[in-house]
Design a protein that fits this description.
Blueprint lengths: L8 H15 L6 H8 L3 H8 L2 H24 L6 H17 L8 H7 L6 H23 L5 H23 L4 H20 L1
Helix pairs in contact: 1-2, 1-4, 4-5, 4-7, 5-8, 5-9, 6-7, 7-8, 8-9
Length: 194
Amino acid sequence: MAGKKQFDMGTALDAAMIQFWRDGHANTSLDDLSRATGLNRSSIYSSLGDKDTLFLRCLDLYAARYGEKYDAALSRAASEPVAAVRAFFDVTLDRIADPELPDGCLIAQSAMAIPVLSPSVAAHAKQALGSQRLRLHTALKASRLTDQDAEAFAVHTAAVNQSLAVMSRAGATPAQLLAIVSVTVDALSQALRA
């Protein structure tokens, strides 16, 4: 039929997201996106937008997909903050361990590339990274932590979470990643007992 799209938008966005996640914004060309999605360049432009627009859509998709999982993990933070933070890290560790997904984290990778991103893409990457800190702050504030301590642990936990993605790309073992998580979870547990 004339004018009818012959592809599934969700499948195309997932494929583009994986391509950006695997190679980063700067190292992903329109030809790479065409191969990943199965769409020609004109279809990418007309249906998904230019490279920056498509990248922003993929970053939003990634943030929403994992944001929902992080929210679910942190939902019991008011009554079980240590278990909630451990569950938060489990979301990341499960993603890292999934052989079907690229190593690392699209948000962490994007944050590291901020100096070379366009201003609008850089701002979006900063916002995505900030959302994780805010999510953690809100959850930890619901526990017995003061606002100041909740913010300190939120910043620390978000930084550790992003470092897990970087360390996994650098070849850290699952045992090493768990040891990194344990230090943060133990520190939180001690702060809550104090």
